[in-house]
Amino acid sequence: MRTVIYPGSFDPVTNGHLDVVQRAARLFDRVIVAVAENDSKQPLFTLAERQKLVAQATRHLATVQTDCFKGLLVDYAVRRKANAIIRGLRAVSDFEFEFQLALINRRMNEAIETIFVMPKDTYTFLSSRIVKEICRLGGDVRAFVPAHVHHALQRKFGFPLRAAKG
Ligand code: ADP
Questions:
Q1: How far is the CA of 16 from the centre of ligand 1 (A)?
Q2: Count of the separate structural domains present in the chain
Q3: Could you tell me if residue 56 is inside a domain?
Q4: How much is the pTM?
């Protein structure tokens, strides 16, 4: 059984994340989307909310599970009997940080391989941060997130997000 962990903040989950999940599900027997409890970031959604939004977005994929974790990712991967960590690479700007992270994780545990996948080109500009920024300015993010995430964003921002013009 080949298991991969897909870790991240998922604040909130976007169609870009889901593209990575789908690619992971094609390569591995089991995918665990692991939502990080990261105290150094100030998330918009709570850990429980983020995990619930991911669970709802992936419930049609039988081999995908969701979980949350804190502490070292490699330790979590061992606990979950995972062989690999998967991350998405959007652009050169992601590369340096991701490269550093992958090598540090390898240094801590050689048995766990990090693999990278590139999303569909239309998602290369997409990030949770951009989605939140558009919402804050009252824009429409329905093309970038699943419908239930759009509704959760509307509730969080407390006003209906208008449709984009043109
Ligand atoms: P983190 O705080 O760990 O960066 P994110 O939720 O922002 O968490 O991202 C988790 C992973 O998903 C990272 O590997 C990131 O590069 C990847 N990712 C985020 N958005 C996209 C996207 N639009 N396309 C492909 N990968 C993405």
A1: 8
A2: 1
A3: yes
A4: 0.93
Paired residues of 84 in beta bridges: 4, 113
* Residues with active-site annotation: 17, 41, 90, 128
Distance from Cα 7 to the centre of ligand 1, integer Å: 8
**What single-letter amino acid sits at 21?**
V
Q: Is residue 136 a part of any domain in this protein? A: no
Single out the residue of 120, 123, 127, 98 nearest to residue 12, CA to CA. Answer: 127
Residue 86: give its domain's CATH number: 3.40.50.620
The residue type at 32 = I
Residue nearest to atom 27 of ligand 1 (CA): 88
User: Rounded to the nearest whole angstrom, what is the distance from the C-alpha of residue 160 to the centroid of ligand 1?
Assistant: 26
Q: Per residue in 23-55, pLDDT tens?
A: 999 999 999 999 999 877 799 999 999 999 999
Residue with tokens 């995990």: 51
- Measured from the Cα of 87, ligand 1's closest atom is 14
- Residues spanned by the domain of 39: 3-121
How far from the centroid of its chain's Cα atoms is residue 82's Cα?
A: 17
